[in-house]
Amino acid sequence: MSKRDYYEVLGVDKSATEREIKKAYKRLAMKYHPDRTQGDKAMEEKFKEVQEAHEMLTDSQKRAAYDQYGHAGVDPNRGGGGGQGGDFGDIFGDVFGDIFGGGRGGGGRQSRARQGSDLRYNLELSLEEAVRGKSVEIRVPTLVGCESCDGSGAKKGSSPTTCPTCHGQGQVQMRQGFFAVQQTCPTCSGRGKIISDPCKPCHGQGRVEKTKTLSVKVPAGVDTGDRIRLSGEGEAGEMGAPAGDLYVQVHVRDHKIFTREGNNLYCEVPLSFTRAALGGEIEVPTLEGKVKLKVTAETQTGKMFRLRNKGVKSVRSGSVGDLICKVVIETPVNLSTRQKELLDELEDSMGKGKDVAKNRPKESGFFDGVKKFFDDLTN
């Protein structure tokens, strides 16, 4: 049985943030957890499916590979991953620990400063730019580490101190009758440290708003929907934690002449009915310039001509697509008196009745079919 799409499993869009993915995972993990479903095998399989989707989509490298190549780009059977043999107890503790502010058991977990969020930048390119590749400069508003305090949030010359309430754990234990519930420390908000003398430029946050200018190398052959990952160029993490990544989302603008499908290019080529009837060479456009195309005699409108290796070079495999030209026969307009006379002479020369079939077989076949249709109606 083929695997379901990871985003579909979690019920989120492909543009979902890591926070949205984790939220969806927690909800589904609680719903399908074996401790709740009383040994229901179908629910257990769904739980494993949710685990696997969560693992893949919360790992930025695995998610990028999956977005680009689907299930073929990731290995869900690597040791302990993909929901194959994960420990239900540990997952149960993680899910409910996050909700109630702590894990199972009496001891609280060590709190960590949060990693910076991933960012997305939409990059528009012309077809020529996408096919050939280029380097572009982009400006991205983001949060960067404060230079004054080196991201610690404490005034230069001072440093954060261990929270006296939770003793650096980021959590405190509250007893309610027979139950002991872990909660986020109200003094340090779960960070485990407090800042007595905050840095003025960042107001103790360790991060400041800034617009960064970045150079992005766009590889040749990219297409709409492709993403370019810039590691560590997302938002700075809290209190010196690692930064997130920046994903440059590519969108290729429509072209006046060509339409792209995969690595192939398509275009419509207008052709006079005389050239279509007699055949010959015509000039057609490609992304590298004009080339000669040999049109066979008696060409009909809609016929496709393929020019090998005149399409797009694949950004992944390196193979080159083709240019496919669709011929559209153009009816002449604004005819002079003499031109009309010549066309009448041509029409007369082709004959009438049964003689039409020789030069215009489709027309003859059509009207023969119409005649038969009405004859059948009257009989």
Q: What keyword list fits this structure?
A:
379 residues, Helix Hairpins, HSP40/DNAj peptide-binding domain, four-stranded mixed β-sheet, three-stranded mixed β-sheet, 15 strands, 25% strand
Describe the protein.
The protein has 379 residues and is an alpha+beta fold. Among the domains are: 1-100, Helix Hairpins (Orthogonal Bundle), CATH 1.10.287; 254-331, Urease metallochaperone UreE, N-terminal domain (HSP40/DNAj peptide-binding domain); 340-379, no CATH class. The protein is 29% helix and 25% strand. It is built from eleven helices and 15 strands. The longest helix has 18 residues, at 361-378. Mean pLDDT is 82; it is low at 76-111.
Short structural description:
This protein has 11 helices and 15 strands. By secondary structure, the chain is α+β, with helices and mostly antiparallel strands. It is elongated.
- The helix/strand series, from N terminus to C terminus, equals HHHHHHEHEEEEEEEEEEHEEEEHHH
Average pLDDT number: 82
Could you give me the name of the CATH homologous superfamily of the domain at 1-100?
DnaJ domain
Measure the end-to-end span.
56 Å
Structural class: alpha+beta
Percent of sequence in beta strands: 25-35%
CATH class label of the domain at 1-100: Mainly Alpha
Q: What CATH architecture of the domain at 1-100 do you see? A: Orthogonal Bundle
Radius of gyration: 33 Å
Family: Belongs to the DnaJ family.
Keywords: Chaperone, Cytoplasm, DNA replication, Metal-binding, Repeat, Stress response, Zinc, Zinc-finger
Main location: cytoplasm
GO molecular function: ATP binding; heat shock protein binding; unfolded protein binding; zinc ion binding
